[in-house]
């Protein structure tokens, strides 16, 4: 129970605040005010809440409109971010004032479980890592567009080069965009000695029907791709600077099979480094990410369910890391293969992502690197469990023959 608290109904232009105060054993008094969401209006809201001696503030996670309110109030009060689905009021009682009052009543009674909002430096790192993923996707999209235009111009460069965006491919593409005449002599300077295709085959592959329109389109996509690559390099430097205080956590996460430094940065940016926000429970962290199975049971019957939505950025990264271990021999790979035999590949990927999140959680909690238990860890664990059970029965006076042990 909270003696003085406030509920905020946040919109794009206005914030309706309702303060409940008074003794906990009596009906609380309330005070309601409206403020604009400009910086001046939010500072007035901060001063008003301070004058009312408010200690806790709750608001719904409505889009991005809650963020400026949170940034101003987080240093003066204990803010709580509520999931809109968890605090929905009875239909037919929907006004801004009643929404704010309802939030304040729930907070005063201790019935709101706040969403996880990381510290400011982690939030900044989260923005950078998410934007990096967007830029990588945009760069891949531009490369695919270049592929399509080359095929339209009947330039079969992809048939002779495994990667047309390597050193040799980039030189050839720049010459094509600039309209240069490329012969075997010029190719000797462009093509690296490790390229397996012969110069004659490469010369034949670029002998297409390219028009000025093709060159213009290639130039647009090429310049955009170069710009994205330059932005990515600058973004990587900024991410490294933000990760400097968490260098140890990144190095420990990097020891997990399938996890590289970029993935480790995503784990730190999305989960943070303080696991007490998940009550030191790895199952809660996995559920928050969205890799735990959903519950849908009624009258003793379990129905089909989907996994919860959770944190999309961390969920996709965890699944990518799991798929990166497909050719390795470790605990994660063995777990994925074992689940895939019974339930299919998709459920196996999600189950292994759950295991990966649990491992990352324990590493961030203990501060120790990953220790590989081997692909036969589960079988050995069951075998040890059976041996312990046999020893227990022997201590109780039972006699167990070799045939009984084989049956067990």
Provide key terms for this protein.
408 residues, alpha/beta, 5-stranded mixed sheet, 17 helices, flat
The biggest sheet amounts to: 5 strands, mixed
**What is the mean pLDDT?**
91
Order of helices and strands: EEEHEHEHHHHHHHHHHEEHHHHH
Share of residues in helices: 55-70%
Oligomer: single chain
* Count of helix runs: 17
How much strand? Answer: 5-15%
Strand order within the widest beta sheet: 3-2-1-4-5
Radius of gyration: 29 Å
Number of strands: 7
Shape: flat
Low-confidence stretches: none
- The first-to-last residue Cα distance is 54 Å
Q: Which structural category fits the helices and strands? A: alpha/beta
Provide structural commentary.
With 408 residues, this protein is an alpha/beta fold. Helices cover 55% and strands 9% of the residues. The chain contains 17 helices and seven strands. The chain has helices at 39-51, 66-73, 96-108, 120-152, 157-160, 167-177, 184-190, 199-205, 212-242, 247-254, 261-271, 282-289, 312-323, 331-343, 345-366, 377-395, 402-407, and strands at 5-10, 14-21, 29-36, 56-60, 78-82, 297-298, 301-302. The strands form two sheets. Strands 3-2-1-4-5 form a five-stranded mixed sheet. Strands 6-7 form a two-stranded antiparallel ribbon. Helix 13 packs across helix 15 (345-366) and helix 14 packs antiparallel against helix 15 (345-366). The chain starts with a strand and ends with a helix. The model has no long low-confidence stretch (mean pLDDT 91).
């Amino acid at each position: 129970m909270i003696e003085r608290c406030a509920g905020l109904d946040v919109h794009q232009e206005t914030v309706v605040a309702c303060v409940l105060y008074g003794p906990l054993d009596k009906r609380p008094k309330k005070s309601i005010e409206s403020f604009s969401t400009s910086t001046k209006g939010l500072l007035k809201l901060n001063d008003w809440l301070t004058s009312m001696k408010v200690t806790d503030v709750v608001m719904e996670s409505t889009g991005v409109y809650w963020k400026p309110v949170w940034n101003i109030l987080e240093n003066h009060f204990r803010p709580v971010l509520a999931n809109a689905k968890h605090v929905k009021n009875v239909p037919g009682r929907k006004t801004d004032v009643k929404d704010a009052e309802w939030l304040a009543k729930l907070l005063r009674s201790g019935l709101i479980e706040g969403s996880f909002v990381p510290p400011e430096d982690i939030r900044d790192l989260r923005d950078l890592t998410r934007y990096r993923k967007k830029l990588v996707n945009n760069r891949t999209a531009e490369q695919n567009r270049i592929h399509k235009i080359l095929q339209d111009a009947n330039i079969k460069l992809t048939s002779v080069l495994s990667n047309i965006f390597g050193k040799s491919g980039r030189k050839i593409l720049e010459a094509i965009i600039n309209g240069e005449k490329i012969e075997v002599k010029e190719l000797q300077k462009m093509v690296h000695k490790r390229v397996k295709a012969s110069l004659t085959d490469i010369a034949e592959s670029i002998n297409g029907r390219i028009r000025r329109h093709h060159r213009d389109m290639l130039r647009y996509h090429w310049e955009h791709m170069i710009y994205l690559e330059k932005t990515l390099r600058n973004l990587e430097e900024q991410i490294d600077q933000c990760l400097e205080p968490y260098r140890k956590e990144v190095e420990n996460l990097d020891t997990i099979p399938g996890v590289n430094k970029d993935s480790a940065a995503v784990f730190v940016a999305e989960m943070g480094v303080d696991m007490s926000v998940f009550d030191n429970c790895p199952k809660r962290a996995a559920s928050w990410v969205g890799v735990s199975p959903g519950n849908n049971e009624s009258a003793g019957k379990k129905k089909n369910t989907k996994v919860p939505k959770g944190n999309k950025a961390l969920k996709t990264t965890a699944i990518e890391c799991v798929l990166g271990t497909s050719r390795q021999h470790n605990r994660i790979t063995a777990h994925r293969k074992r689940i895939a035999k019974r339930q299919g590949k998709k459920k196996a990927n999600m189950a292994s992502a759950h295991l990966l999140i649990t491992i990352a959680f324990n590493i961030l909690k203990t501060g120790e690197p990953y220790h590989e238990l081997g692909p036969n860890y589960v079988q050995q664990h069951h075998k040890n469990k059976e041996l312990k059970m046999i020893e227990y029965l022997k201590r109780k006076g039972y006699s167990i023959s070799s045939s009984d042990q084989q049956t067990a």
